[in-house]
Amino acid sequence: MPPHEGLAHLEEYDWRDSNVTLINSDIDHKVKHQSASTEPAWNTGVIGREPGLFIWRIEAFEVVPWPQGEYGSFHEGDSYIVLKSERVKKAAGEPGGDEDEDKLVHEIFFWLGNHTSQDEAGTAAYKTVELDEFLHGTAIQHRELQSAPSDAFCALFPRLKILRGGVRSGFTHIETNEEPAHTDTLLRVFKHPSAGAGRDSIFVHEVEPTWQSLDEDDVFVLDKGDKIFVWQGKNCAPMEKLKAAQVVNDMTIAKHVEVEVLSQAESRSKVVVDYLGGSEIGPLETRFKSPRPVSSATAREAKKLFRLSDSEGQLSFSLAKEGNGIEMNDLNGNDVFLLDSGNTIWVWEGRGASRAEKAMWLKVVQRYIAQQGDAAGVSFAKVSQGNEGRAFVAALQA
């Protein structure tokens, strides 16, 4: 019997209690490479050979391709793997061929919804490492939390759409082959709160269809099945209005329904509040405020660089440098380094790092984050020497 059969209950995932701490340990590279060579999701003849954006969802411990028409849409009950491959020019003096040649640079993101199960999250993390093995260990690996996505992840999509539910895992089940009975849907449209995100980085997040979900700083789209209302908060941005119009256009391509756009300042906007259960609310006198479901990690202190090394015969983790003067020259290719840039934690793995150093990076990151009271929602990423990418270099130079 497969080890996952017979499970009676799937617990929600909490990354602080991660079950993936054996990644890069004695479950050796040979095992992962063998597994990767038989994974249908990677062996398409395209992955690792052609540039592009590729997304998979974890379903019943399997890596299932996500439809391209749904790229940018994620369910909060699921875990996903996202691969971004792009061609870049080789740097001067870089080994492996003519420096004028292009090379493929890969970034892998494993995205964890707020209500994903422990098994889905563990599978996504393990398969991320396996995909990196398939790509010869050159990929940048990112862990992404729904509640605090990184700028790098947001930059992949002009519009991120977060929906409730997910695959069968004890939460709302999404029936893909059946037409579900309509229930009112309320979507919140807002700009990503991080100043570092792209100017056009807009979130579309499904929220509880109640008047308490409204916020006067954003735009909301209420889909009642036979009619769609757009409620524009009095302080919403023009970009949010534009993106809301695009959302409505997408929703009405397959069905012809009436659409009504209402400004919060209009007395007519009370109809939306009424539909959302606020018939006793005076919309012109009420201040609508609701915490955004997505936050940005705040820069905490000066940057810090830590060194993980066993050069003296015993594995040690120590502060190597602090402040904004950290440079690439401060990294030693014989060790592993942790860079806390303030809003992202980076792990840099030197080519000559020992097996013990490489095996410990994830445990060290988890322990470090657990000790930082203000770092719970910080994203982390791992890079290898020679495959750092622009985001890591920018984090050093910031």
UniProtKB/TrEMBL annotation:
GO terms for biological process: actin polymerization or depolymerization. SUPFAM superfamilies: Actin depolymerizing proteins, C-terminal, gelsolin-like domain of Sec23/24. It comes from the Eukaryota. Pfam families: Gelsolin. Residues 64-153, 205-252, 330-372 form the Gelsolin-like domain. One of its GO terms (molecular function) is actin filament binding. One of its GO terms (cellular component) is actin cytoskeleton. This is Gelsolin. It comes from Karstenula rhodostoma CBS 690.94. The lineage of its organism: Eukaryota, Fungi, Dikarya, Ascomycota, Pezizomycotina.
